[in-house]
Specification:
Layout (H helix, E strand, L loop, with lengths): L1 H8 L1 H20 L15 H11 L21 H13 L4 H17 L1 H12 L1 H13 L1 H9 L4 H17 L6 H17 L7 H14 L4 H26 L10 H8 L18 H10 L1 H18 L1 H17 L5 H7 L2 H27 L5 H9 L2 H5 L4 H4 L3 H31 L8
Length: 438
């Protein structure tokens, strides 16, 4: 029994199972898929693939729509450059490159079990950490997203939960090297997914405040972290400022994303068919005006719509909020009534995960209000940009590890409460005058 418990708690065992589960799902998805006629394995790559192909073919970081359009800042560079490296080695959109990037995505997703385990243990105890890591090993979106999408999604989840873990771990490592490494980690995470920048200040302030409480030179330590962060992101920022004449810093596509979720054709969340990758008209407009001018025009149109249609804007934001936390824009009863068994199962899972997360966050705040602040910072702030623009389950995925940790803690608390209730009843039964003896 002891060996079983050790195995269940083993990070290597959990990661291995997670990887096998994802590998089996990948085999299920791809094993009978016909070979593309042009031998280009481009399914699920999108703009990331186009930029990577441009880099690998010697045309630089450019052309996010697959047509020569000049330099781009559509996506932060970490994942496209990783993919470009595979394209360079194995061939652009080749079968070998596709296998390589999918295996890396599966590995990123599987390795996320480890920081989840450590974060859960640190905050809520061994049971919560182990439970959370096993949750992640089998969580449907953590299984299928690295298979279906060739994107930074799984790497973003891994780097963000590592950043959250490091925020708490700084309490034991109050030296310049550790705080510099902390800034480097957040810088790398930002280069993977610029959206994580929204939660960096809150986590840094928390870490600096805790250092100040312990009488450390918090300002000096925080300066090391900020300096390291700036050094990591500055090459990309300087490149954008030079190439786009001071008009772009991290990413260029905010105007388009804002417009896709705020225009007269939006039904309830966003108008995906107007994206330049799907619309010939929009693609031609993008190519004619250039990236910066096109994005600025879309931003202006979106802001005008928001100002003149406040009721519609609020309705869209409500639907995006619901989609973020339930993966559906419609009410529970509407989806349940018209859904099949699989859809109902997904609906129950998504609602349950959110409800358990909220209870976990409540329990965490009751236990230690201060220690729960970084978790609250992640849950509240990270999705805000997607309420304003548009969202899918893929956009929320970087914070899913934190959600899983909180949900697992809620489950552990529930089981402990049931155990105490059972023991209490057993004790009452023993001392009851109605109790019988064998």
């Amino acid at each position: 029994m002891r060996r079983v418990r050790i195995l269940i708690s083993s990070p290597l065992a959990i990661i291995s199972v997670a990887f096998v589960v994802r590998l089996l799902y990948a085999f299920y998805v791809f094993h009978d898929m016909p070979m593309p006629a042009d031998h280009r394995y481009a399914l699920g790559y999108g703009e990331v693939g186009y930029v990577a192909a441009s880099v690998a073919s010697g045309h630089g970081y450019s052309s996010p729509l697959g047509v020569e359009s000049g330099p781009t800042a559509w996506i932060t560079p970490a994942f496209p450059l990783l993919l470009a490296g595979l394209f360079k080695i194995f061939g652009i959109y080749s079968r070998e490159a596709s296998i390589g990037i999918h295996l890396l995505n599966l590995l990123f997703s599987s390795l996320t079990c480890y920081p989840i385990l450590l974060l859960g243990k640190r905050l809520f105890g061994n049971s919560a950490g182990v439970t959370a890591s096993w949750f992640w090993a089998f969580l449907p979106q953590a299984v299928y997203l690295p298979v279906i999408w060739v994107w930074d999604t799984s790497l973003s989840a891994l780097t963000l939960v590592a950043c959250v873990l490091a925020t708490y771990a700084l309490e034991e490592r109050e030296n310049a090297r550790s705080w510099t490494g902390y800034g480097v980690l957040w810088g790398l995470a930002t280069m993977v997914n610029a959206a994580v920048l929204s939660v960096f200040p809150g986590c840094l302030i928390f870490a600096a405040y805790r250092a100040r409480q312990r009488g450390r030179k918090w300002l000096k330590l925080a300066t090391f972290a900020v300096t390291a962060f700036v050094l990591i992101v500055s090459p990309w920022v300087v490149r954008n400022l030079v190439v786009f004449h001071g008009q772009v810093t991290l990413r260029s596509n905010f105007g388009l994303e804002l417009w896709l979720g705020n225009n007269p054709e939006v039904p309830d969340s966003w108008s995906w068919w107007l994206h330049p990758t799907d619309s010939e008209t929009e693609r031609a407009d993008f190519l004619r005006k250039g990236e910066v001018a096109y994005m600025q025009e879309k931003k202006a149109a979106a802001i005008q719509f928001i100002k003149t249609h406040p009721a519609d804007t609020l309705r869209f934001q409500y639907h995006r909020f619901m989609e973020t936390w339930t993966s559906n824009v419609d009410a529970f009863a509407d989806v349940w009534g018209g859904g099949n068994l699989r859809l109902r199962a997904e609906l129950l899972l998504n609602y349950s995960l959110t409800v358990l997360m909220l209870f976990g966050l409540l329990f965490a705040r009751r236990n230690d209000r201060e220690l729960s602040i970084p978790l609250l910072n992640i849950i509240v702030l990270f999705p805000v940009i997607y309420y304003v623009t548009h969202t899918t389950i893929r956009y929320r995925h970087p914070i899913d590890p934190v959600i899983v940790v909180l949900a697992a803690y809620s489950v552990v608390r529930l089981f402990r409460a049931l155990e105490r209730l059972g023991l209490g009843r057993s004790s009452q039964a023993k001392h009851s005058p109605f109790a019988t003896t064998a």
